[in-house]
């Protein structure tokens, strides 16, 4: 499956669609490899995934799922998008919690083991039990906010209002310094790319947004997301870093766990290393092991916004849409209308 030739300048509508499309494609690529070690991924699927694979019978989270199936990353991002569209750019905490609970129940009925993450489950339980929303996310340091934040980046232009939108979409479940920093980095990179930023500039704007966000929420002890991304900018040579070098850097020095300070910089590493080839970038991210469906989803969202939806092969776009019943174009268009109303 060959990547589509890059167009000179995708328009804003296609960049918005590309963010959602890339998220879903990266997520689906990482579905069969998530929770496996890097050596195990290489043993089963080769050095780097060639394309979509079904979930193996012993897949810890997605056994037997069809090739091209998305996971909680895409599903929860779509919940965020729906709520933003329904409520004019704002997200009601209790409605969000109820929607997440309903989603998890539907996943259980389908026999899926890919359910709410630990931070989100705890926060939702506390909110529904009557805890104030500004307290329920005080332990949420994992990447749940960052994995589903791309719609906020599409709906919000760069600037102070973007950080406010990130906090509103995240604090119920992930109201910690590191989680907000990771979510802000991804949202800002997507938002910059929708406005036309090239990958390197989108990465810089993502790092710049992570700094102020890290001073918000409940402090937790964690490596600084912005500093890690800045370090990667100096450590990686765009277009000259090999697949194995990138995977080695991500696995050995950055990390691929669901910790925000690992998975978010890991995604930015893939964006930097393969800035001109989004299809290769998401396949490398999905081959890294660990929480690689989330890493690939974030990578795909950022590079999809940079290159537009046609940065990914047409067969890949069709397969993910068909397998999951996704119709992303009207969602992207509605999010763009919110952006225009916000002054973007």
Keywords summarizing the entry:
mainly alpha, 18 helices, single chain, 0% strand, ADP-ribosylglycohydrolase fold, 344 residues, 62% helix
SSE blueprint:
Elements: H1 12-30, H2 38-45, H3 72-86, H4 93-109, H5 118-128, H6 133-136, H7 144-147, H8 150-155, H9 160-170, H10 177-194, H11 199-213, H12 225-235, H13 243-254, H14 260-273, H15 278-286, H16 292-307, H17 314-324, H18 328-341
Helix pairs in contact: 1-15, 1-16, 1-18, 3-4, 3-18, 9-10, 10-11, 10-14, 10-16, 11-12, 12-14, 13-14, 14-15, 14-16, 15-16
Brief sketch in words of this structure:
It contains 18 helices and no strands.
- Mean model confidence by pLDDT: 92
Q: Briefly, what CATH class?
A: Mainly Alpha
Spans where pLDDT lies below 50 across 5 or more residues: none
Share in helix: 55-70%
User: Helix-strand pattern, N to C?
Assistant: HHHHHHHHHHHHHHHHHH
Distance between the termini: 35 Å
Give me the Rg, rounded.
18 Å
Number of helices: 18
In percent terms, what proportion of residues is strand?
Answer: under 5%
Tally of domains: 1
Structural class by sheet pairing and helices: mainly alpha
What is the CATH third-level topology name? ADP-ribosylglycohydrolase fold
Please identify which CATH superfamily we are dealing with.
ADP-ribosylation/Crystallin J1
Shape: globular
CATH architecture: Orthogonal Bundle
For the sheet with most strands, the description reads: none
Secondary structure: number of strands: 0
């Amino acid at each position: 499956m060959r990547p589509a030739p890059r167009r000179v300048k995708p328009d804003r509508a296609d960049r918005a669609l590309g963010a959602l499309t890339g998220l879903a494609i990266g997520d689906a690529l990482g579905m069969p490899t998530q929770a496996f070690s890097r050596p195990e991924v290489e043993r089963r699927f080769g050095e780097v995934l060639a394309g979509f694979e079904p979930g193996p019978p012993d897949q810890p989270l997605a056994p037997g799922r069809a090739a091209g199936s998305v996971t909680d990353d895409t599903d929860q991002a779509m919940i965020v998008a729906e709520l933003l569209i329904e409520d004019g750019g704002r997200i009601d905490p209790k409605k969000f919690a109820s929607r997440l609970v309903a989603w998890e129940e539907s996943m259980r009925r389908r026999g899926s083991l890919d359910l709410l993450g630990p931070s989100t489950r705890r926060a939702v339980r506390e909110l529904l039990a009557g805890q104030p929303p500004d307290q329920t996310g005080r332990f949420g340091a994992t990447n749940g906010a960052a994995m589903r934040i791309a719609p906020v980046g599409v709906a919000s232009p760069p600037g102070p209002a973007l950080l406010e939108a990130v906090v509103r979409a995240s604090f119920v479940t992930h109201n910690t310094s590191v989680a907000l920093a990771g979510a802000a980095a991804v949202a800002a990179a997507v938002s910059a790319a929708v406005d036309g930023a090239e990958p390197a500039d989108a990465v810089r704007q993502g790092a710049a947004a992570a700094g102020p966000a890290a001073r918000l929420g409940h402090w937790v002890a964690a490596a600084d997301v912005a500093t890690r991304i800045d370090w990667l900018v100096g450590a990686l040579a765009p277009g000259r870093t090999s697949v194995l070098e990138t995977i080695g850097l991500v696995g050995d020095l950055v990390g691929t766990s669901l910790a925000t300070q690992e998975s978010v910089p890991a995604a930015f590493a893939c964006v930097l290393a393969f800035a001109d080839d989004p299809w290769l970038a998401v396949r490398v991210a999905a081959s890294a092991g660990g929480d690689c469906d989330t890493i690939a989803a974030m990578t795909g969202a950022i590079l999809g916004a940079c290159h537009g939806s046609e940065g990914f092969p047409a067969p890949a776009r069709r397969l993910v849409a068909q397998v999951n019943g996704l119709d992303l174009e009207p969602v992207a268009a509605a999010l763009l209308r919110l952006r225009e109303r916000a002054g973007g």
